[in-house]
Model the fold of this input.
Amino acid sequence: MTLQQFMNEAISPWMRKDGPDSDIVLSSRIRLARNFANVPYPIAADPKELEEIRSFFKEKYEGQDFGSYKDLAFVSIRDLSAIERRVLVEKHLISPLLAKHSEAAAVLISENEQVSLMINEEDHIRLQLYLPGFQLSEALQQAFEFDDWLEEKINYAFDETRGYLTSCPTNVGTGMRASVMMHLPALVLTKQINRMIPAINQLGLVVRGIYGEGSEAQGNIFQISNQITLGKSEQDIVADLQSVVKQLIEQERYARQQLIKQSGDKLEDRIYRSYGVLAYARIIESKEAATCLSNVRLGIDLGLLKNVSRNILNELMILTQPGFLQHYAKKTLAASERDQLRASLIRQRLQLEQ
Done:
């Protein structure tokens, strides 16, 4: 596999497209948790019951199409190496929790990688659907349609009073998590994000890192999602999240302009120094790479850097993760070896654009 071919696989096809406000909102995601009626949740089910669910999805949905989501590929987690599992996590196609499961865990992934259906994670079904940019309402509508298609063959665990029943009580009701991935470098640089996060939490939303719960917000990328699933409709939850995200977009844009006015030279210096590190470094750790990539992306969005495309940075954010580096090397690497390979791949990728 050539470097260029590998790069084409490092980023999902849908991530190459710009969406509304994509200079700040990287993606919109709807995740729906569902369970089979009259079957114990994965944490309580016996291996035979979970294997029957796994086999059901393989038989009914492998290779199937629904709308623009073509050729659903069925992948058994037990057939993957540790590195392959990590790659799927890094591309947000499966959760870290599913990657730890083995025997009856699986995932269905659409050809464009916008839809992935995790099987036997915390719930029997975790459907997640992505769209580029700020498109929560459209993502919700498409997730509903996909969910309805699944329900034609599945009897969901549902209570007229409580809504959808899930393994974790915090998901009961709609069973939905709506989230956006946002790049907020100016709010971080001006330290405004420190007071905003507690305020956002008080609104029933939660701020996490790029890989969700328990992850760090590397590269100034934050995931904003709802906490409440019971007592509100899906539309109301999305509307509340949209309202907060719109305010964050406005404040991030204003903070960027203020940085240009008040610290223009320092900002340009930060951006070009970061580009220099990426273009010439021989060793670079993942955290430093994420910071430099964030700074360079800010430079692109502000029109200060014109020789690098935003898509390249999207690719590099994923490509330079530990799983992808080891997949590319076709072997397990020590941390120092990953730092060297990371720097080498970044240099080569930036050179391809010149």
